[in-house]
Write a structure and sequence with these properties.
The protein is α+β, with helices and mostly antiparallel strands. 41% of the residues lie in helices and 15% in strands. It is built from 7 helices and 8 strands; from the N terminus they run αββββαβααβαββαα. A hairpin with a 4-residue loop joins strand 1 and strand 2.
Length: 229
């Protein structure tokens, strides 16, 4: 079932150690089949070097396992909520990458300090609140997804394709699994550069809005002109 998607999701998961986004098994990528209302995700706690495409787990939008010899990622319920609420995304990734997670542990959104950030994220990358004990007891992973989705109810989730969950780490999404990983790689670099920027100049101010607009909209939207058509 979904053999091609399993291969795509496997390959996307293999990009996490390649780009230094995971230590041990601290991360997961998924990809969705909208027609079947199913998605494929990395199994929980299995070392990356031991994974094969056949090890990827098929689950439904309620987080129930449909196919696979392993249990799906412990973050499956978060992915399920994001697919249900963001009906135009095709991939989700969660990591504990060091720089982005450092901002999450500090409880700080990542300000836009330069054009690298502005090329990908329109404004700050938000750091969301910690779930209450009641929310955690009710369903930690599901309510993490609900928290993210609720934040974007009146915002464009495609203009900022990632968030930091306070004291936890980043979640990113994209048009497919590989694209979501691309966003996660960029987020990690942006987080690193922002931290270093504040070290060099603790009084730094965010990039002027007109420069942010220029760089974001030259890559996104109807009048984008970056790259090849």
């Amino acid at each position: 079932m979904l053999e091609e998607l399993k291969k795509e999701v496997y390959e996307a998961n293999m990009l996490l150690p390649k780009y230094g986004l995971v230590t041990f098994t601290w991360g997961n990528v998924s990809g969705v089949d909208r027609e079947k209302k199913l998605f494929v995700i990395k199994p929980s706690g299995v070392e990356y070097e031991k994974l094969t495409p056949e090890d990827m787990v098929v689950v439904d939008f309620d987080g129930n396992k449909v196919e696979g010899r392993y249990n799906p990622s412990s973050d499956t319920a978060t992915h399920a909520v994001l697919y249900s609420q963001f009906d135009d995304i095709g991939g989700v990734v969660h990591t504990h990458s060091a720089w982005a997670t450092s901002w999450a542990q500090a409880g700080r959104s990542i300000p836009c300090y330069g054009t690298t950030h502005a090329d990908y994220f329109y404004g700050s990358v938000p750091c969301l609140r910690v779930l209450t004990k009641e929310e955690m007891d009710e369903g930690y992973e599901k309510n993490t997804g609900v928290l993210i989705a609720d934040y974007f109810k009146d915002k464009d989730h495609n203009a900022v394709q990632g968030v930091l969950c306070k004291n936890h780490g980043p979640f990113c999404w994209g048009k497919n699994a590989e694209d979501a990983v691309h966003t996660a790689v960029v987020l990690e670099e942006v987080a690193k550069m922002a931290a270093r920027t504040e070290t060099v100049n603790p009084r730094v101010e965010p990039t002027p809005q007109h420069l942010q607009d220029k760089h974001y909209y030259r890559k996104h939207g109807e009048n984008a002109y970056y790259g090849q058509r």
